[in-house]
User: What shape does this take?
Amino acid sequence: MIIKLLPYITKEQSLSFDDCIQKLKQTYDGYRFFPDGVGVYNPYSLLNAFSDREFGSYWFETGTPTFLIKKIKNASFDVRKLTDYTLYASEGMLKDYTGEGVDPVPLLYQTGYLTIVDYDKVGQEYTLSFPNEEVKYGFIESLMPAFVPDSSAGSGNMLTDWDVRE
Assistant: This one.
C-alpha cells in the first residue's frame, strides 16, 4: 500500500523515490523495542503524511501528557542531559517502571519520546535517543519550553546550547 501512495507525496514534494523514502525514514521511523530490532514507523504520522502529501509533525497532535511534564518538573530533570540526544538506562529501569520512581527517563521511553538505539552487554546498559526527527524537534519545540527559562526575562536560554542541526 505504501508503495502505491509514494508517487503522490514524491510529486507534491518534488522528491525522487529514494529521497522520499529517506525523508520518511528520518522523520517517522526509529521506534525500537530491543537493540537489534527493526525500526518501526509511527503509523499515525505516516498515514497523515500520505494524506496531506507533506512531512508534517503529526505525533504531537495526539497530545502531550501533562503528567509527563509534571513528572519531569517534579524530578528536577535537567533536560540538558539530552543535549547529545542520548541517555542511558538499565534494563530493570525500563522494564519495571511503574511511574512511581523519581527518574523520568523510563517514562520518556514508555511514552515514545525515547527509543532504544544500542545495548552495552558488558555494562548492561541501554542507550536511548529520540526515535526520529519528528519526535526530536517536537520535544524541542513543545516540551522544552516548559523547562527552559525565558531568555527575554534575562535568565538565559538553554536552547542556545541545543544543536538542533545535529
In short: The mean pLDDT is 80.
